[in-house]
Amino acid sequence: VVTIHIQNSMLVTGESMYSKLSLVDLAGSDGVLDEGATGERVTDFIHVMKSLSA
């Protein structure tokens, strides 16, 4: 996981904006359930998929 934080402050108005971008490498995770994986691997897969749909 790589997370990029960006903060921008407008000098004239004093307004501040904050953004966060998270990049996740999901290579190989698409077949987790088809491969018959169990335990922690399936739990991790479910958590990742839930977080992506949030």
UniProtKB/TrEMBL annotation:
<dbReference type="GO" id="GO:0008017">
    <property type="term" value="F:microtubule binding"/>
</dbReference>
<protein>
    <recommendedName>
        <fullName>Kinesin motor domain-containing protein</fullName>
    </recommendedName>
</protein>
<dbReference type="Pfam" id="PF00225">
    <property type="entry name" value="Kinesin"/>
</dbReference>
<comment type="similarity">
    <text>Belongs to the TRAFAC class myosin-kinesin ATPase superfamily. Kinesin family.</text>
</comment>
<dbReference type="GO" id="GO:0003777">
    <property type="term" value="F:microtubule motor activity"/>
</dbReference>
<dbReference type="GO" id="GO:0007018">
    <property type="term" value="P:microtubule-based movement"/>
</dbReference>
<feature type="domain" description="Kinesin motor">
    <location>
        <begin position="1"/>
        <end position="54"/>
    </location>
</feature>
<dbReference type="GO" id="GO:0015630">
    <property type="term" value="C:microtubule cytoskeleton"/>
</dbReference>
<dbReference type="GO" id="GO:0005524">
    <property type="term" value="F:ATP binding"/>
</dbReference>
<dbReference type="InterPro" id="IPR027417">
    <property type="entry name" value="P-loop_NTPase"/>
</dbReference>
<dbReference type="InterPro" id="IPR027640">
    <property type="entry name" value="Kinesin-like_fam"/>
</dbReference>
<keyword id="KW-0505">Motor protein</keyword>
<dbReference type="InterPro" id="IPR001752">
    <property type="entry name" value="Kinesin_motor_dom"/>
</dbReference>
<dbReference type="InterPro" id="IPR036961">
    <property type="entry name" value="Kinesin_motor_dom_sf"/>
</dbReference>
